[in-house]
Design a protein that fits this description.
The structure holds 2 protein chains of 2 kinds.
Chain A lengths: L16 E6 L2 E7 L3 H9 L2 H7 L6 E4 L9 E7 L13 H20 L2 E3 L7 E4 L2 E4 L5 E3 L9 H17 L17 H7 L8 H26 L8 H5 L4 H17 L19 H18 L3 E5 L5 H8 L4 E6 L2 H13 L5 E5 L25 E7 L2 H5 L6 H11 E8 L5 H7 L11 H10 L3 E8 L4 E7 L1
Parallel strand pairs in A: 9-10, 9-12, 10-11, 12-13
Antiparallel strand pairs in A: 1-2, 2-4, 3-4, 5-8, 6-7, 13-15, 14-15
Helix pairs in contact in A: 3-4, 3-8, 4-6, 5-6, 9-10, 13-15
Chain B lengths: L14 H22 L4 H13 L1
Chain lengths: 472, 54
């Protein structure tokens, strides 16, 4: 791995090429060894088919003079996505969409004489609610009879978390933050209930798959220990998979994933949306949020505590080109994603974020996947009816809240919920009020301490709540 | 792998995974082939019964 600071931290495993920045522009160097595969991708019609369907990010070829290091065959400039989300920040339906995208891409690849050589969830990003493959170098020429080398990775990155989320608990998606190469299949197999064996797809792709991996690892370990030749897995080397067989495996995975639903057995309708405003109050709040977003001239907006994204849409309609609708409740994010997808809406990207423990810098040498803060700052951050949850629900001092918000956005738009408000009283109902500093004066002092002043303020209807916009 | 110059798995697919895939593909590939030739498990069984009875 190069110590070159221009290289993108996660781009080192595949010898086919890597991403780097040159004068602030993201480029991809394709190595000489990958030339035949890249040539086939472009000449077979696969690239055209994938980009026409919006399944792969398009790129343009750049002069070789822009290469970063030795061995370059091509230099590509991929279309830049406005935001990178990480698989542990996706809700169930996002992961399901990313999985089905990967299978669709593999299907099209096979139809053009190619196959996916990896199936990492990190290779998928979202444009709004539309998944897209971002790794142009994931394809290699398909050789009839060879197995799908990315099968295990696909099962670990997609099938296992989806099955666990659907059959056990939606919160198990959080395991992906620990297991960056997907949930180990033996762990998934252990966590699943016995009755999951009754599903042929789960039995084959998870339970038996995990056993086969463990069994062969043990045999190979024993052979290697006794210094016998052939430890590389003779059976594996003989493994042949016909084209029809491979298509059968893909169809089975697709069917299993498409059939999975969010926490089977949970009543969707039981989740009620709570509103703290009557119709007039909501209209007033919507109007003010739109006005404040316009005044900030915000294009990229982070909506924290967005719930299902009601005000993310308001921000988008007020001129934002990208709004991240972040919430810590998987069901709220799920509902927001489905609503946007079913309505064919764009411009809003739902994201699962626990603000008390947002995504840290992850992976090898802390350099593969960026923290949430490192993906900012945004033009504006919305924190509507959020501060009391952090300050009282999580005991964060107001200056800590101000610090976090100022890191994420150049403008901070806050709906301040004062202590007498029923929502704050609800948080205080079963505990001692140790929050003497939770006052409007305390809020203003906290923002002053991080260098931001209130540049706009308005009362939200007759609720007693106030909307503030802070800026430097 | 047959053509090391063409196919290079940079990830370890794991032997046990490849072996399982070959077995699973054998079963599922049979179903794919049956579907393509217009056969279903039900009409294969039906034909078998007819033959037995006839």
């Amino acid at each position: 791995m190069s110590a070159d600071p221009s290289r993108i931290g996660s781009s080192f495993r595949d010898p086919s090429g890597y991403l780097y920045r040159r004068a602030g522009v993201l480029l991809r160097q394709v190595q000489e060894r990958y030339r035949p595969h890249y040539a086939h991708l472009m000449s077979s019609g696969l690239y055209a088919a994938l980009t026409a369907e919006g399944l792969l990010v398009p790129h343009e070829e750049r002069p070789l003079a822009e290469a970063d290091g030795p061995g370059a065959a091509f230099v590509l400039r991929p279309e830049l996505l406005p935001f990178i989300s990480l698989p542990y920040e996706w809700c169930f339906a996002q992961r399901q969409a990313a999985a089905l995208l990967t299978l669709r891409v593999q299907e099209l690849a096979l139809a053009h004489g190619m196959t996916l050589k990896d199936a990492s969830a990190f290779n998928v990003q979202f444009r709004g609610v539309q998944p897209v493959l971002i790794d142009t170098l994931s394809f290699e020429r398909y050789e009839e009879g060879t197995p799908w080398v990315a099968y295990r990775q696909f099962c670990q990155h997609f099938l296992a978390p989806l099955v666990l989320q659907s059959r056990v608990d939606a919160r198990l998606g959080a395991l992906l933050r620990q297991y960056l190469d997907g949930i180990p299949l033996d762990l998934a197999s252990t966590l699943l209930p016995r009755r999951s064996w009754l599903s042929p797809a789960i039995a084959m792709h998870i339970h038996l798959h995990a056993r086969s991996i463990a069994q062969h690892a043990a045999t190979e370990g024993a052979r290697a220990g006794s210094r016998r030749e052939g430890a590389g897995g003779e059976a594996a080397a003989r493994a042949r998979v016909s084209r029809a067989g491979l298509e059968g495996v893909l169809a089975s995975l697709r069917g299993a994933i498409a059939d999975l639903s969010w926490q089977a057995g949970t009543e969707w309708g039981a989740y009620e949306e709570t509103h703290n405003y009557d119709a007039a109050g909501r209209a007033s709040k919507q109007g003010l949020v739109a006005e404040f977003v316009r005044a900030a001239d915000a294009r990229r907006v982070m909506d924290l505590g967005a719930n299902a994204g009601e005000y993310s849409r308001v921000a988008r309609d007020a001129g934002a080109t990208l709004v991240i609708a972040a919430d810590g409740d998987p069901m709220a994010v799920e509902r927001g994603f489905r609503r946007l997808r079913d309505g064919g809406e764009s411009g809003v990207h739902p994201l699962l974020v626990d603000l008390t423990n947002p995504a840290p810098a992850q992976g090898w040498n802390h350099g593969e996947w960026p923290s949430l803060a490192a993906r900012g700052p945004f033009d504006a951050v919305l924190a509507l009816a959020l501060v009391h949850h952090l300050a009282i629900g999580n005991n964060v001092p107001l200056v800590g809240v101000a610090q976090m918000l100022a890191t994420l956005g150049r403008h901070v738009i806050i709906e301040w919920v004062p202590k007498p408000d029923p929502q704050v009283q609800r948080l205080l109902a079963a505990r001692e009020d140790i929050f003497d500093g939770y006052t409007e004066a305390g809020l203003l002092a906290a923002f002053a301490a991080v260098g931001l002043s209130p540049v706009q303020r308005a009362a939200v209807g007759t609720s007693g709540r106030t909307l503030f916009r802070f800026a430097a | 792998m047959q053509h090391p110059d063409l196919v290079f798995a940079y990830l370890d697919p794991m032997s046990g995974s490849l072996v399982l895939q070959a077995v699973v593909a054998g079963v599922l590939g049979g179903i794919v082939t049956m579907k393509r030739t217009g056969l279903t498990v039900r009409n294969v069984v039906a034909k078998f019964w007819k033959r037995l009875k006839g």
